[in-house]
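Please produce the structure of this protein holding carboxymethyl coenzyme *A.
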Amino acid sequence: MSKKDTITLIDNSTGKEVELPILRPSNGIPTIDVRALYRKLGYFTYDPGFLSTASCSSAITYLDGIKGELQYAGYPIEQLADHSSFLEVCCLLFNGELPSNEELTEFKNIITHHTMLHEALKRFYSGFRRDSHPMAIMVGVVGGLSSFYHDDMDIHNPNDRMIAAHQLIAKMPTIAAWSYRYANGLPFEYPRNDLDYAANFLHMMFNKPSEAYIPDPFMVKALDLIFILHADHEQNASTSTVRLTGSSEANPFAAVSAGIASLWGPAHGGANEAVIRMLVDIVESDHDIQHYFDRAKDKNDRFRLMGFGHRIYKNYDPRARIIRKTCHEVLSKLGSNNKYQELFDTAMELERIALQDEYFVSRNLYPNVDFYSGIILLAMGIPLNMFTVIFAVARTVGWISHWNEMMQDPESRIGRPRQLYIGALPRDYPKNDK
Ligand code: CMC
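Below is the modeled complex.
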């Protein structure tokens, strides 16, 4: 290792020093390997929120937040959005390569034939309150899958891991659609093998025994695109949760259930729901946009402009750009008098003002993936509380691909961060002198 491949850290209080290796990624920011720090100098590093910490190495997704670029296994998201399909992207993320035509046909076949849920799982739903948030149901039911697939699964066997991935990708739309059916008092709709992935999801959401639902191919394509754009985003909070949960060798269905719980929060996947609530409020307040900007900038107010800002992107989120264009196309198809146009116009007006506002410009706050996606989902007839569920359906492949990668990584160990203890010093339990 040459001197230029290391960084030397000197402890000024003791004069001791340590040479730490600099790891060079295939693309992106060089990374200091601090593993020897505690052993050699007796220090931990402090980085709440992982602002400067790489928690693992990964070959799945690359994103450059400064340039606003996103690639799955090297393929730009724009090209995948234009030419690929969600199931092809699933193969790419899980295997690291695009499938051949035969491989893709076989994969589609496997997914199509694993969409059914064990009948006993149906009874889980009736334990939830009618008005449960569907994300609460998702956390419970996906966690419940671990009780069906535990004893006969060897997580150290690559084939068993692949089967778990197939089961999750295939069953997630069924679980998701059924959470909606349950909340609306509708009978559960079984999957149909003649429909593709996105069309089947819409069928299970909206088909009624009394009235057949015929998925609109245009909406099916838009939903497939939304699935592609949400499929993975490297070490975000929910993916890191799946990795951390799985690092103890927990059941992968339980690990994914933990990921769903993490995704639910409004700072993460819950933002798509929060964006629409905010846009509706703005429209109902007679477009008092300035009031929302004032609140977003006020440090004493917890309100944030939802769908804006990102930990990594300090530029326009490339997914938001694609979704904005699709949103425009979907609304044009519905005609100029569609009831979502006002929300879209309001969103574009917010974006226009934010991109000229000193507060947003100086902090590099741009629209993120959640800013426009909700308007498309509304136009499909999907209710607000299902938005994050759809994100979870799409992100499942990312979660399970990261879990699989971690299970193969010889450097991965149980995740166990250290802490900066700031509590009481040792003290004696008070004597009972009553
Ligand atoms: N509105 C107003 N101010 C904001 C916003 C916002 N949406 N986002 C960040 N800021 C400000 C923040 O107050 C801080 O200001 P200052 O430097 O004066 O203290 C500065 O920008 C940096 O923000 P941060 O909170 O330190 O950044 P972070 O990386 O910890 O948080 C974020 C990233 C996405 C949680 C945050 O931008 C946010 O809460 N955005 C709104 C929620 C949202 O849209 N989430 C979806 C994220 S993308 C999809 C996903 O991950 O699922």
